[in-house]
Specification:
The chain is mainly alpha-helical. The chain contains 6 helices and 2 strands; from the N terminus they run E-H-H-E-H-H-H-H. A two-stranded antiparallel sheet has the order 1-2.
């Protein structure tokens, strides 16, 4: 299992945000996400869905996990990339993360 791409630059994060602004169907997701959020686990979950299922909730979950574990990232993350990726998450996920960090 592995990760080969993360939205760690402002450019990639903004591309991901644009991609996530509309439904992202399973039958197109892996190709569109490959260079932005390339991860075996994420793609395995996507493959379990029906061809016309929207996969954005899986991407959000993956991004949340990634942001909560930046200290394990093999790539350096730009601040703008972090902020942009946080904007993709539901408000409850971000507030939970901040509560956890403040302990």
């Amino acid at each position: 299992m592995g990760t080969w791409s993360q939205p760690n630059t402002a450019k990639k994060a903004h591309q991901l945000k644009k991609l996530m602004s509309e439904p992202l169907l399973k039958n197109q997701a892996c190709e569109k996400l490959y260079h932005l959020v390339g991860d075996d686990d994420l793609f395995d979950f996507i493959q379990e869905l029906e061809p016309t299922d929207d996969v954005r909730y899986l991407v959000q979950s993956h991004i949340e996990t990634t942001l909560n574990n930046l200290n394990r990232s093999f790539l350096k993350w730009e601040e703008d990339a972090i902020t942009t990726c946080e904007s993709l998450l539901p408000a409850s996920a971000i507030s939970l993360q901040k509560r956890t960090e403040s302990k």
